[in-house]
Structure formats: structure tokens, C-alpha cells
Design brief:
This protein is an alpha/beta fold and 660 residues long. 53% of the residues lie in helices and 16% in strands. It has an eight-stranded mixed barrel, surrounded by six helices.
Amino acid sequence: MLARPLADSFTYRIAAAIICITCIFYSNVIRKRNRIRFRLFRLLLIITLIDSLTEFGHYAAVYSPFPDTIKWILSYGMQLLYYSTHFGMIPVFVFYVIMICGIRYKFNFVHRSFIKVPFYLLEVMLLTNPVTQFTFSITGKFTYVRGPGIYIAYGVSAVYLGIGLYLLARHWRTMNNMKKIAMVYFLSLATLGTAIQMLIPQVKCELLGEAIGLSGLLLMIEKDDDRTDVYTGSYNRSALVQDLGSFFTLGRNFVTVCIRIGNLYNFSKLLGYKKTGQIMTQISDFLMNLDEDELNIYYVQGGIYYGLYEGVDAKKARSIAQKIEERFEENWGDENEGIKLDVKILLANCPEQFKTINDIFLLANVELEDEKKKIYSGSDLDFLLRRIEVEKAIGRGISEKTFAVCYRPIYCKKENLIKLAEVSLKLNDAELGELLPEEFMHVAETSGFIEEMQYMTIEAVCRFLSSGVDTSDMQLDYCMIPIMSAVMVKKEFANRVERYLEHYKIDPSLMAFVIHESDVLYGKEALYYITEVFERIGIKLFISDYTEEYFGLEAFSAYQISGAILNVKNIFEADKTDNSDIVLENRINMINQLEKTVILSGIDTMAYYDKIKDMDVDFIEGDLLSPTVTKNELQNKFWHGERVIVHNNGIERIAEDDNL
């Protein structure tokens, strides 16, 4: 029968062994992506399990029926096995901390070797122990006493632990809360178990504390449920944001791989939810096995995957992209019902090209001009970098008030007299210079700035109309403000315009709004509300770039539209033949039959003017007649009653007032 102290010791070791075996079994069913970190964690479990079992091996040898020589060999071997693995516990933990902190890229072969050297020296010291008796020695029958080498090992372990704690403290902010809690939990239990065993040698609970702490790491870090997409098995969007934040905080160089599966949504309607899910899992398996140790794969949504490639050059990243392209040339799914998916792969060098998380997420949504091209990298992404710079310029423009509201004069066709003005924006950025609406409007819409810019423009026009327009002196019929995006087609827009009119005490007839024909499709109920409010208070609404494609003639009455703007330049450039003249005349005639106002825009050249000079329209505008001007220049034109006369040699401007 075992003595009570020995039985208690066995109890702690049995508990530690059971916990380790359970964790190893459970870890086998966890689908891991960070293989190096996971292998280190498994090694910690195996070391703890071996250390827990060596005492069983020792006593099994002692109480075995073998001769004493065999017992001595087995018992001594168990001691060597215990110390050889136990010495490796802390060095492995240091490498695990390096992986947890995400700083593996900072440790090259020389650095890693430097960390390993003390451990190797301890192992050499241990292997020579049968000769030197420096680590431990025999004091009696199957009993051993620690030698100076053990205390040297404690000192080395303390240095290793100090390195691990230093790395944790230095990179504490790069870890999420779950990692922080798990590491504190493990270190606390391991330290507590060691301290108790040192103070009370009979209570051998050091390994039990380590085992329980490792089980906490398994559940809180290695399981990664909160970071895993349940449908694909890859990391999720939240994990991508966390890891990108960590990468940028650490200042590391990495390559972002954006994999866009273009036609997956269309196939999902045909195949159904279950079949599509199986294909997504198949794709995820392929991507995660491309480079298990270096490439982390994240599924965002809608057939968009991201991969983060640490410390690799452009050549290796492109090699991975080519493998992805080659695989997508084959079918996905079952052999009998396979489908071919279209893929676009974007490789972004970070932080050299893309410096923020928002920049990287633009890779998933940006429009790509070349439909045939599959892989975009390097200079292929210059257009997106420009878009990012423009977006930043828009933000600066709003905060620093560098947007300029400009006006394009519109002239009465019959009299060639200035009558209206159309509002536009210009952006004068300190870094990029002058930006035109053609470049920054689309960026503003997709980046969420458009609503603020819309109301900023309306308010600027209201201030101008309230203080700079005297209807008795300036013969301005109304000022036309574009509705900048479909996102503005909502009830709040009309209510806010009405509040602006009341606040600035403006005659509503001085204001008109212009909505793009394609934007009419969005929010029809809201558009009905907007037109009702505008009609009630006296604001006109026009359709711009009218083509009949989205907006039928009957809708002019239904939505109480005052008129349409036809872009001459767009019509003539779309069709170089004489058919364009016929198309334009037909649209003008149809709108005239409805007794609505017709405005021709885009008259930028004499050739365009010659084509439209005999057409029956109300107003004309374009670069030929006048470029955009400031509000002061616009006031001068109205005060002097500017009239334009078009000659073969160009434009002549005549002031109708008596002062000229």
C-alpha cells in the first residue's frame, strides 16, 4: 500500500495527466489555421503530460519484479526524461508568447537560435549527468537529490520567463482581451503551483497548475470560436479587423490577398443554400491549405476572402495568387454538378501601399475596369491608391472647409440671356490640388461623405440666395441644385430642405433640384413624398441625363417633374452617326408635348452648338457658353444682364445694363 504523501503526489499527477490527455484529445478535433502556434501549444501539453507520467514510471520500475539493475536503469531514465522535458517547458512557452504577440517576423534564424542555446546547454548538462552527477545524484536506494545543475536550470528558466513577460508587456496592446485574460490565467496558475510546491515539497501541484492553465489557453485562445466563421471554417471579419489592427500597430510588412468570387451569388440562387455552403467550405479548405504556416485566411461576406501573408516578398505572394487562379479554372462542387467560378485576386503591399484597415476593405468593393485580368498587384492598384487619396482629400475638404461651391450660368435659348444657374462643387486640396466633381463625387458616395456634402452645398446656396440675390435687380429665375446620390432620395431630405428655407427666409421659387434619371428607381415612395413637399412649397424638380431608360413620360406627371436636362455631349458621343440628332430631337419633342421645360447641357464645342441651334428648347448651358464661375462672378453676370452671341469665330458677351 502506498504511503499517504506518495498517494497525494500521485493524485496531483493523475489529475494533471487526465487534464493533459483531455486537452490533447479535444485539440485534435479543433480545426486549426495557425499551425505553428498550435504545434507549440500541443508541445506544451505533451511536455506536461510526460512530466506527469514520469513519476508513475519511476515507481512502476521500483515495484516491478525486475532485477535491481533494470530497476535502476528504468528509474534513472525516468529522472532524465523528466528533467529533459521539464527544462524545455519555458523555452517553448517563450516561442508561444512570440506567436501570441504576433511578432514572429522579428525573430530570424539567428534570434531563434540564440533563444535555444541555453536550453541546448542544459540538455548537454543533463546528458552528462551519469558521469558528472552535476544535475542530480543518487543518495540511497532509488532516491535522488538535486545538484547545482538544477539551480542553474532554475536561473535559466527565470531568464526565459523574464523574456516572455517582457514580450507580453511590450506587446500587450496588440492582443485582444481574450488573449490577455488567458495568458494571465495560465501564468498565475503555473506560478502559484510552483510556489506552493517549493514552500511545501510534499504538495506536488506544479504540474497540475500548469495543466489547468493550459486548458484555459485551449478554451480561450486555441479554440478561437469567436474568430471563426461557422460556415467556412476560416477566420471571420472580426478576426481580420483584429489582426490587421495588430499588424499595423506593430508596423510589420505584410501582403494582403483579396480573393473576390464574382458569380457565386448567382449560382447560390440555382444551387440552394446547402449546396452553396458545401462549395464555400471546399474553397476555404483549398485556401487554408495553400500555405498553412504563413497564410491566414478570412471569409468576410458575399464571396469575399482575405489572406494575410506575413513577411513574404511580392514574388511568393504572386505565386500563391497564380495557384488560386489555376484552381479557379477548374470546377467546384461535385464531379457531376460542378460549377466554374469567376475570381479576381488583388495583392496589396502593406503598409507600403495600403496604410489603414479601411483602405484594405476597399479592395473588396472597388470596381475593376479590366474584366479579363485575374490578378492585380503593384501598379495595377494605382487607381485604388488614387481613390484612397481622394477620399482623404474629401475628409480634409469637409473639416478644413476647402470645398468651393461654383455656379454654371444657364442661358435662355431664344434670347441668349442668362437666366438660371446650376450648382457644382470643386475641391481645392493642399496635397492633391484642384479636384473636379467627376473624380470625387463617386468616391464620396461610396465612402459615406455624400450626405454631408449634399447638405453643405444646399446650405451654401441658401446663404447665397438669402444675402446675395436681389430679385428686383438680379433676373435670376432659379438656382438648380443637384441631388448628388440615390442615398439622398428619402423623406428626411425634403424635410431638411424645408427647414433650410424657413431658417434663411428664402423664396422657394428661387430654388430647383435636379435628380439623375437612374436615381429615380431608388425609394419611389420617398420620391413621391419629396415631390409632394416640393410642389406644396414651390420648389421645382428636374430630371438630368434623361434617356427614357428608367423614367417614362407618364412619370413626369406622376412625380410632378418640371422638366428634363438632356446632355448633348453624352448623346452625340454615344452615337457618332446622324441617329444621335434624331434621338435628341425625338426626346425634345416628347418633353415639349408634355409642356415641360427642356434644358440642353454639355454644349462644350461649336460643333455641338451648330447641331442644336435650331432645336426647340428653353435653356442651354456648356463650356462653350460659360465655364463654372464663383458666386461673385455669377452676380456680376446677372447684374449686367449678360447675353451671349455665338459667332463662327467664338463667343461674344454683351452686357445689357446702361453702365456698359
